[in-house]
């Protein structure tokens, strides 16, 4: 079953739809966003040069630094009164990437999310327990809108509250659970500890996403919860969850390419790579109004294929994300750039500009420990300082480190060149 027949569109037809939508998007971005006007002018490209997808590589890339440099709303292409929603995700320097949506954008998001849910086997009338975080993060509200668009019954519990999650899974007979893979495993582990048997639940499917999931990890989720686990991908800059979704064939994620055009490029040179080769995913929005995005470099590594899929959908498939081309860390589903932690450290005169991040896996959950170094001049109370740093990190990262230690001056090891290795990923 598909939600929308467009998912099975003939490839030539899809291409002409994309050609036309790309032309409109480039014009819209050029006319209404100073950043794009300057970028195209600098590249010597005018909207009239873009006939269709064949010309897409003439367009300059957009990077996460462009969201940062135009914080908060410099990339918005519509009047403020036409915005209906703002979301935000972690940026690289403590300033989040802010994205806006018009009414049309919200409808489009609801539609691609409804498609994604149907692709996962969700039907109208199913009960979906949504354990993605609500708020500025796009996960909670994105999935929520998809359920409403589809006509599913959504339980908006959001992230955390593990005891309550287990209770509702049992008492409300949820058919589907939506959450990060690490949280799915944590729920399974907690259920086991409490002597609860997931086989007694009604749950058949978990829609996992927002962070990478290895094949063994997926197998463990499926075994422990007695479910099918399918991968959903997305990012705030493009729309949120629902850019692509894995189908029951479990052979890649269908990209909703009538709205988001994908490319894979060499992460070093930016040159487009042939189909099947792994590189950095780049997306161009084809219908977004509030924040049209041209050739956004996601930093996510994957491959693309247009080979037919057993499910009958013709839309291009991406592989699971295999890694990152930059230093983004995803901790319990929250995006963290080391540079964000650095920006907080630099705000405090009481600490030296050195820090260390240790990532571990405790059972199924990621932990993050931050160590900073007291400055020579500081003779105040370490505990009080640690509390203030923790507070500030919580504000900037939307995540509180599991521990925050203050090392004595010189206490963080330097290498001979004076450089500090900052991130120790023990996972
Ligand atoms: O994580 C949107 C989302 C919410 C997707 C819920 C799926 C489910 P951001 O916070 O902007 O948006 O983070 C986007 O998260 O560039 C990837 O690095 C990573 N990511 C998202 N989905 C997956 C996935 C949401 N299925 C960033 N596999 C992206 C691997 C993922 N990484």
UniProtKB/TrEMBL annotation:
- Per the record, the coiled-coil ranges are none
Domain AMP-dependent synthetase/ligase, which positions?
Answer: 59-283
One Gene Ontology term of the molecular function aspect: nucleotide binding
Recorded hits in InterPro entries, A to Z, give: AMP-bd_C_sf, AMP-binding_CS, AMP-dep_Lig_C, AMP-dep_synth/lig_dom, ANL_N_sf, PA_CoA_ligase
Q: Which UniProt keywords apply?
A: Ligase, Nucleotide-binding
- SUPFAM superfamilies, from UniProt? Acetyl-CoA synthetase-like
Q: Which residues form the AMP-dependent ligase C-terminal domain?
A: 333-427
Its annotated pathway? Aromatic compound metabolism
Quaternary data: Monomer.
- Write the protein's name: Phenylacetate--CoA ligase
């Amino acid at each position: 079953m598909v939600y929308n027949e467009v998912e099975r569109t003939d490839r030539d037809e899809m291409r002409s739809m994309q050609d036309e939508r790309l032309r409109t998007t480039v014009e819209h971005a050029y006319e209404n966003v100073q950043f794009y006007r300057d970028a195209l002018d600098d590249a010597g490209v005018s909207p009239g040069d873009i006939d269709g997808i064949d010309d897409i590589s003439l367009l300059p890339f957009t990077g996460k630094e462009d969201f940062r440099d135009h914080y908060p709303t410099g990339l918005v292409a519509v009047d403020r009164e036409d915005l209906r929603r703002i979301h935000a995700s972690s940026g690289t320097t403590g300033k989040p990437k802010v994205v806006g949506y018009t009414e049309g954008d919200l409808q489009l998001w609801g539609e691609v999310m409804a498609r994604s849910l149907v692709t996962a086997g969700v039907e109208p009338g199913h009960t979906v327990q949504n354990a993605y975080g609500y708020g500025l993060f796009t996960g909670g509200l994105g999935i929520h809108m998809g359920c409403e668009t589809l006509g599913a019954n959504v339980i908006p519990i959001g992230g955390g509250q593990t005891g309550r999650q287990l209770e509702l899974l049992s008492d409300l007979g949820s058919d589907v659970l939506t959450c990060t893979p690490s949280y799915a495993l944590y729920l399974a582990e907690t259920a086991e500890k409490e002597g609860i048997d997931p086989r007694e639940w009604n749950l058949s499917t978990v829609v996992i996403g927002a962070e990478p999931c290895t094949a063994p990890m997926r197998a463990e989720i499926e075994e422990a919860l007695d479910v099918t686990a399918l991968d959903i991908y997305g990012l705030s800059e493009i729309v949120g969850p629902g850019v692509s979704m894995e189908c029951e064939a479990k052979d890649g994620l269908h990209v909703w390419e009538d709205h988001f055009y994908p490319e894979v490029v060499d992460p070093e040179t930016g040159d487009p790579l042939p189909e099947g080769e792994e590189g950095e995913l780049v997306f161009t929005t084809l219908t977004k109004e509030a924040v049209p995005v041209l050739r956004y470099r996601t930093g996510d590594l994957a491959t693309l294929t247009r080979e037919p899929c057993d499910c009958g959908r013709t839309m291009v498939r991406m592989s699971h994300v295999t890694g990152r081309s930059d230093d983004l860390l995803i901790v319990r589903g929250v995006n963290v750039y080391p540079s964000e932690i650095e920006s907080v450290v630099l705000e405090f005169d009481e600490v030296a500009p050195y820090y260390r991040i240790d990532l571990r896996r405790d059972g199924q959950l990621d932990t993050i420990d931050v160590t900073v170094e007291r400055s020579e001049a500081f003779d105040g109370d370490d505990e009080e300082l640690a509390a203030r740093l923790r507070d500030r990190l919580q504000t900037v990262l939307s995540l509180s480190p599991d521990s925050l230690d203050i090392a004595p001056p010189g206490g963080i090891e330097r290498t001979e060149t004076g450089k500090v290795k900052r991130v120790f990923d023990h996972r």
